Every structure is written in structure tokens, then in C-alpha cells.
Amino acid sequence: MSAFTSLRISASGLSAERLRMDTIASNIANASTTRGEDGKPYVRKIAVFQENLNEVIKKGDIVEGNLLGVKSVGIVEDQSELRRVYDPSHPDADEEGYVLMPNVNILNEMADMIAATRAYEANVNAINNEKSMFSKALEIGR
Q: Are 62 and 51 in contact (CB under 8 A)?
């Protein structure tokens, strides 16, 4: 492994968690959007990631260049049901008085945001520790 592989892995984690936080922020912002451009309620989005491997790891040995961190695969829609809320005065209410609301639960989104923030902070701390170790190694060489 090269000296900068760990920095690249932490940087990929930072990018992934930023995308996750952006997706969560979008969910929170649209928690009460009952009609989007397509005329349907907003559907919760989820950021999907996978490990980023250069090649398959064989026999448990890590070969240089294989581990590259994490990469985003995409953003998918949550398949859980939309909420039905009784509000006959709402302009998007059906003939029975029910409005289809987004499947966004603010409490879950806030818990996910806290987890993403802590993961982001952990990657920042890892980068700072790696920089400190590089600096100490350079001091030893003087």
C-alpha cells in the first residue's frame, strides 16, 4: 500500500457521507411536498454505496491498489408506502378527503443525519491523524 492510500480511502468516505447528508437534507426539505413536477407526492431518497475495489481480493491477501474506499452507486427511492392523512381542505385531497403525504419520517432522517455527520467527522479525524503521522515521519528524517 502506498502512503497516500489511506488518505484516498478517507477522502472517498468524506464524499460518500456528504452525498448521504445532501440526500437526507433533500428528504427533510420535501417532507410535506404533496405534489412534485410529476404531480405525485415526494418519495424519500436513499444514497447507496458499495466498496470500491480495483480487483477481487484473493485468499484474504490485500494486494496493493485493491482497496480504494467507498463509491456511490446511486440514489434510489424508498419503496415504503406513502402516508395517507385525512385533510379534506387540502387541495390535493382525494374524493374521500385523504392526502398522500411523502414517506419521510423526520425523526428517522435526523437520526440518519447524526450518523452521517459522525461518520464524516471520523473520516476528517482519520485524515488529520494521517497528516500528523506524515509530519512526524518527516521530523524523524531530519
A: no
CA nearest neighbour of 12 among 58, 62, 53, 55? 53
This prediction has a pTM of 0.82
What's the pLDDT at 58?
Answer: 54
CA 16 – CA 33 distance, rounded (Å): 26
CA separation for the pair 136, 15 (Å, rounded): 27
Tell me how crowded residue 17 is: count the other CB atoms within 10 A of its CB: 23
Q: CB of 7 within 8 A of CB of 67?
A: no
- The Cβ-side half-sphere exposure at 6, using a 13 Å CA radius, reads 12
Rounded CA-CA distance 64/104 in Å is: 42
Which residue stretches of the chain have pLDDT < 50?
64-65
Query: Are the C-beta atoms of 88 and 76 separated by less than 8 Å?
Result: no
**Distance between CA atoms of 83 and 102, rounded to whole angstroms?**
6
- In order of 3, 9, 55, 91, 100, the CA distances from 61 in angstroms are 18, 18, 12, 61, 52
